[in-house]
From TrEMBL:
Residues 1-52 are annotated as: Disordered. This is Membrane protein. SUPFAM superfamilies: Metalloproteases ('zincins'), catalytic domain. It comes from Bifidobacterium minimum. Residues 1-47 have a biased composition (Low complexity). It comes from the Bacteria. Transmembrane segments: none annotated. InterPro entries: DUF3152 (IPR022603). It holds the Pfam family DUF3152. Residues 66-210 form the DUF3152 domain.
Amino acid sequence: MSKSSAPRASESSASASSSKTGDSDPTGTGTSSSASDGDGADPASLSDAERSEIAADARAVATAGGKTVREYTYCVAAKGDVGDIGEFESTVFRTLNDARGWPRAGAVFTQVSSGCDMTIYLSEARYMTWFSSGCSAEYSCRVGQAVIINLTRWDHGVDAWMAAGGTLPRYRRMVINHEVGHRLGHIDNEITCDAAGNRAPLMQEQSMDLRTCIPNEWPLDSELWIAD
């Protein structure tokens, strides 16, 4: 699987649980939600104690997986008029350190105020091309160390994705994990839907086309690698 240093407009070109077969359920419970991260929205803020507990759980998952544990720091920023980003910050932290997500590949994420490995932006749609001409006002994007979440998608998701069984909170987790996946070395559509009704690979461009799969916000077992 190749890496690319080109602007990663992963959902920028044109259009739009549990699995039946294939990859195992990331939780190991046979369910697609938990008390802290089901279909509902995450709390708008996290206390220091809550962040410490989530980070400890993520580290335990990363260590238990037998893969090289990689520590990443990230900053959170806004581009344009996006309002209060407290809920965004909370959702980013919970999503990146969720036991069903990239910690299974050995990644642990810490939010810092400066000197970060990546900056995760919430950006007005009209500023997406400010980051790169390879980005689009329609979707989210990754450019170098910048992970840019499109405010329009954050607020509304994609109708087809949610009509297929997703929800807005799940869409938000999917787009965060997908774009950060590019920062970890993954490329768009490196694997795609293998059978109707299975969970879509995280790195498939689900916003554009589910390809008969069902919405999925977490990396599949086959996507649990880090190259960057």
